[in-house]
Amino acid sequence: MTTSDELTTAAERPPQAGLGSFVVGFDATEGSRVALQWAGELAARTGSSLRVVSCWGLRDVWAEAHRGQAQGEVPSEAELAEVAHRRLVAAVREVLGGQADGVECLAVHSGEAAAVLTEQSASAGLLFVGSHGRRGLGAAVLGSVSGRLVREAACPVVVVPHRVIEVREPAQQDQPAQPA
């Protein structure tokens, strides 16, 4: 139990610039693309920074990294990481367009998505992830990254439902709402 001396109200706290840093878990699925778009729009409106985090494994980047190498030559860890980072940057530019400037892209090798995003949440104001729409046995067997993040993240988690696929054009974002 706390005493009234330890409590502060929102009005008593110093103002913050924006909502801090937003982190988006990105796995190139439609759900993560929609979550990235939502986070990008909110970051632009609030002045918050945006960090997009993607976990990758060897099979995700091996073929592309191996192209152009001599027979029997193995890509280095740095070459594999570069391919993963380049792919992430390209995907972020595709989703956010002109809003991608200044977005931090972090491609993490061999990390379990929930653990990596939980760690990233320690320095975030909000954590965004997309929902794959799995229910019941599918979610139980495959595990639920979003469910685990809701329980373990150090900041609020926004799970964008997989049904939210409406992708607005940038020109529509700046137009004021029409009166009814």
Question: Would you kindly provide a written description of the structure presented here, covering whatever features stand out?
Answer:
The chain has 180 residues and is an alpha/beta fold. It has one domain: HUPs (Rossmann fold). The chain is built from 7 helices and 5 strands; from the N terminus they run βαβααβαβααβα. The chain has a 5-stranded parallel β-sheet with strand order 3-2-1-4-5, with helices on both faces. α2 packs across α3. It is globular, with a radius of gyration of 19 Å. Belongs to the universal stress protein A family.
Which secondary structure elements does this structure contain, and how are they paired or packed?
Elements lengths: L20 E5 L4 H17 L2 E8 L1 H9 L10 H20 L7 E6 L3 H9 L4 E5 L5 H7 L2 H8 L4 E4 L9 H4 L7
Parallel strand pairs: 1-2, 1-4, 2-3, 4-5
Helix pairs in contact: 2-3, 4-6
SS strand fraction: 15-25%
The end-to-end distance, rounded to whole angstroms, is 48 Å
Tertiary shape: globular
Helix content: 40-55%
What is the highest CATH level, the class? Alpha Beta
Structural class: alpha/beta
Name of the CATH superfamily: HUPs
Q: Report the total helices.
A: 7
The CATH architecture category equals 3-Layer(aba) Sandwich
Major beta sheet, strand line-up: 3-2-1-4-5
Sheet having the most strands: 5 strands, parallel
Which segments are poorly predicted (pLDDT under 50) over 5 or more consecutive residues? 1-18, 169-180
In total, the number of strands is: 5
SSE topology string: EHEHHEHEHHEH
Rounded to the nearest angstrom, the radius of gyration is 19 Å
Task: Round the mean pLDDT to the nearest integer and report it.
Answer: 78
CATH topology description = Rossmann fold
> What is the domain tally?
1
Protein name: UspA domain-containing protein
Domain UspA: 22-161
Family: Belongs to the universal stress protein A family.
